[in-house]
Design a protein that fits this description.
homodimer, about 325 residues, alpha/beta, UDP-N-acetylmuramoyl-L-alanine:D-glutamate ligase, nine-stranded mixed sheet, five-stranded mixed sheet, globular
Chain lengths: ~325, ~325
Amino acid sequence: MSTPLDVVGVGNALVDVLSLESEDFLAAHGLVRGSMTLIDAERAHAIYAAMGPAVEVSGGSAANTLAGLASLGGAAGFVGRVHDDELGQVFAHDIRAAGVEFSGVPATTGQPTGRCLIVVTPDGERTMNTLLGAAAELDGDDVDPSFVARAQVTYLEGYLFDQEAAGEAFQKAAAAAHDAGRLVALTLSDSFCVERYLEPFRRLVASEIDVLFGNADELRLLYETDSVEDAVASAERDCDVVAVTRGAQGALISARGRRAVVPAEPVDHVVDTTGAGDLFAAGFLFGLTRGYEIERCGRLGALCSAEVISHVGARPETSLAAVVADHLP
Amino acid sequence: MSTPLDVVGVGNALVDVLSLESEDFLAAHGLVRGSMTLIDAERAHAIYAAMGPAVEVSGGSAANTLAGLASLGGAAGFVGRVHDDELGQVFAHDIRAAGVEFSGVPATTGQPTGRCLIVVTPDGERTMNTLLGAAAELDGDDVDPSFVARAQVTYLEGYLFDQEAAGEAFQKAAAAAHDAGRLVALTLSDSFCVERYLEPFRRLVASEIDVLFGNADELRLLYETDSVEDAVASAERDCDVVAVTRGAQGALISARGRRAVVPAEPVDHVVDTTGAGDLFAAGFLFGLTRGYEIERCGRLGALCSAEVISHVGARPETSLAAVVADHLP
């Protein structure tokens, strides 16, 4: 069990519950379009009761990324906490079935497995309401330094900042990775999340992060500037590699001072943007761990992102290795 | 709560767990292509462990039909048994969110909510492995005669024959319907099921069934003949209305001696045939309860069936009322 891994992710283990709703649904239930909001059990009950017939698919931001990396042919691992219940079994099954080594042992005490109630509006935008459950109980004890040390890159999910104990898990994972001479990557995850935890994010990025993922809004918030250019310049001082996703405008990549702009991959019909950023990171990290040029890393990210937004759910439905073989031989 | 209903279904309350697998998967795991097999928990564990990443969507044959009927604008009710667990909550949420009145109270004792492990092969064919769980405990006590009496048609799912106590539920529901001057419909569900329970099926069809649904194989097995024509002629003696589905060849309908052939609705790409027969019944029953001509009933069935086989999962993803308005105004 000590075979090398390309990437190990540390993130929220969640099952997504997705339904398609009209635009009116957001206003009627006080939901902020495109955001991720943490909710309690009572609010989850109320939102779920209002949602139409739903589909359950394993999710979790970093977990989606690692499932994507495995689908590309990469060696992937994941650290996250589920409860020993039906949704926990679903999560553990799906991530293992995707080819990801899952280090978690389902907890028999504490809260039920976390879920994310996702409202998808007709334009494909997703609005997420997360009941963290067991995922909120992730702490340093869940991180096995020898597991992390096996991976070229340890990938941290910014959403975890919403949990107190997770800071400890982050620090432990980052320290284990750096002690082993490995890279540490972070995705900022959500602009509201960056706003809520600005100082800890800034400290973490400046001190521990080698590879930074975020969209333009998140980067501007992190560096408290209106200028994307200034934000990227600041990020370049903190991190070796910066990848800024900009939706249909494509991605801006910077690696050790060299920059590239990568166009978004055209998609006939955007069904559900859930997982778009997660799968961009999957493609990008796959390329990075193979030593590809940043342009190719970015194009791999764009391809993977295009696959996942063309259907409901945040995990790939087709082999991403086959998609790459077809489009980027 | 005593508003009239168009159709009440009595069936297995199941959550479907679907994954896309290669043809080889069937042989490797001893699965009979296109069939429904009842499995125990141990076998379910083994099949699930072998399946790739899956999607969970509410299912159950009659439950799918009633969800379809509601999507068409019909007034639908459902009788089935779930446990008070996460999958039971998923089932109850989804059927209510589909607009179906669900009479069930989740059981707090007995087995967990039932699930159907569905392997979908590249041609869209589905092979089903059902762990009935709580659904196997449905009995006469679950049937409220006053609920059944509210519906023009009581629709029974043949799969229920795989459970001993369900016979009692069938008899009670059929008696309540007939006492109220209502119709009783049955779907034969599965040729293996017909073979296993030939005599009880024959008795039920001859004595209680007004509207019979089945495919050509099921009808031939029921009447022990190689000739579809002979089987239909026998069914016509037993039932007022007979609807025989024949896949891409379309449906043969017979009502009080008058026959019609209805072509299948063309589908660009068959993704997953799960629910094809269930949704045919939905469209057909919707038409029947509105007093439409049998040709139109059949065409409604074909349209609903076409919607459900064009995506993964056995419940409609779009408003069937809108599909009908577009295609069969």
